[in-house]
Input
Amino acid sequence: MCRDLLTATSESNQIKVPLLFSALFIFTISKMAKVSASEGLKPKAMEVGERTEGVQGGVRLKKELSLSNGVAIIVGVIVGSGIFVSPNLALKYAGSKGMALIVWILSGCLSMIGALCYAELGTMIPKSGGEYAYIGEAFGPLPSFLFLWVALFILAPTANAITALTFAQNILQPLWPACEAPDSAVSLIAALLTYQGFLTVINCYDVKWVTRLQDSFTAAKILALLLIFFASLWHLFHGHTENLQSMMEGTKTSPSAIAIAFYSGLFSYSGWNYLNFVTEELKNPFRNLPRAICISMPVVTIVYALTNVAFFAVLSNAEILSSTAVAITFSEKILGSWGWIMSLFVALCTFGSLNGAIYASSRLFFVGARDGHLPLAISLIDIKRLTPVPSLLFMCLMTLVLLIWNNVEALLVVVTSMEALCVTSSVTGLLWMRYSKPNLKRPIRVNLALPCAFFVICIFLVILSCFTHPVELGIGITFTLLGIPVYFIFIKWQNKPMWLQTGCHSFNTFISKLFICLPEDSKEL
Output
């Protein structure tokens, strides 16, 4: 069956899913309020230092990430589903191949500017959690909680769900060559065979396994994308240049359409900020964080540009627009009956991207729980393997829930628009702290024009997207505002009834014993 856009009926059902799950989460928070110090499980403030397991310090996350691991995380998370989802969406809203290619290159440049701003933030505030830590430092606990609220239910699980659905679509495409695979089959494969369980187990077991896996698959996926480019050169050298003629024909000039085209491109570059989520686990972050960013972003931008040139050289506009698995369509035209090999390449890309995303996003929720903005049980650390097992399992559960909403385009618009708002908030915090905290130590200080330009462009894109996808953007903004009463009722209110605190302590103790975990720096329950 061929997928249509969201209908009115399915749209109302899809809106209910995150709202119902958020209600369940609110109920959970009410049962897991912060525990007093006398009850033995106290959230720890963010500290920077070596993550080691010792008699004096208790259990802590270890500094395992080198410069090469940092580069692998950034490149590995970025190069995932986006390069296979976005080519047809970027072309759809840009109108022409030439404009779409310009959008891809400019999206890389904009992401590079944002990454440089985050290099200053990450070295100025060397804490894990990324935007959560930066927004909290600049504007206080409520805005940082709102970011955590959005990241918990929208940003991280939705991005992971898109990666999972992309894997499923590409794997199933050879079985339904004439049309799209059934939605139920896509969702099922995404839930069962996109490594959610497998990767979660690896992340729970050992950080070194995660980094080795990330390094290997990052190298493999870059080689795979370069092979796509060289295959297109072979196609061109045989005289097939018709698809590169009149590259600008059909270009759309509508600002709102161009904004959505940029959303498609920017989504493919999303992940450049993920290393900031694990700053406390990065060796020598003052040196390795900016270096990893400056190495990764140019590499990704060049590889993405070459890959899109390859797609545009081999496929016509109609072929790209009608395909939800552009890489498979490309390989079928180039390799014929051997086109299924591209499915393996897509699996490599989504595998590595999902692995890095699970690793980094689980640390975000771990830090939020450590600061008392999420249930304390999420901040517990496995005493043997020194990994945040409850946080990883919770992240896996949230991603599986989001697979119910399997319209990739709608998911992409929601996650990219909300991510643009969150990143804009962080860059606004950078500008504000230049004024409010001028004496704060800044190992890296970017030119003021860069954060200002990034801020203006992001606001421009968010406003323009309101005209083409108001429903998706409205869902994201409404859900963000719902976090305000949640904060004041379940976080700000300190004098909770004793029975609630007792129930909370019992639940946290149960989780601690179930997974053999302890709070950070604790040696016993």
User: Anything to note?
Assistant: The beta strands are 381-382, 517-518.
